[in-house]
Amino acid sequence: MSVRSNLTIEAHRSAATVYASGDLTTAAVLRAIATVERLPSHVRAICVDLRGIRRTDSRALRILEAFLGRWRAARRGMSRVKLAETASTSLVAIKFAHKRFAPAPATAVGAS
Fold first, then answer.
1. At what angle do helices 58-75 and 26-37 cross, to 10 degrees?
2. Which tops the pLDDT comparison, 67 or 103?
3. Best CA proximity match to 23, nearest among 62, 60, 68
């Protein structure tokens, strides 16, 4: 049986969206990464819409997770991943990719 993945990338002035449907394979993720890396440097936000995915290769999700972390750091940007309602993952960067984590503010000791 042939595995079918469809990718569409839509880019605007400062953001882009990757739409994926079919089966999310390692090959599909690597194709998407190659395309996203060629986006102009002023694109600093990316959304990866996986709501059209039927089946997911766990290795593909791990590759996507690692790439999004490097991409956000290199561009000082943000990313968001939209999963299908039926999807579940334990990968933190996929589940919470849209959140920016910051250390808790320090509290003064002995302050009244």
1. 10
2. 67
3. 60
Show the domains of the chain with their CATH numbers: 5-95 (3.30.750.24)
Sign of CA dihedral 4, 8, 52, 57: positive
CB of 78 within 8 A of CB of 72? yes
pLDDT the model gives residue 93: 46
Q: Among candidates 47, 46, 51, which has minimal Cα distance to 22?
A: 51
Is a pLDDT exceeding 80 seen at residue 85?
no
User: How high is the pLDDT of residue 54?
Assistant: 86
pTM of the predicted structure, to 2 decimals = 0.73
CA distance 13 to 70: 21
DSSP class of residue 23 equals: E
Which amino acid would we find at residue 28? Answer: A
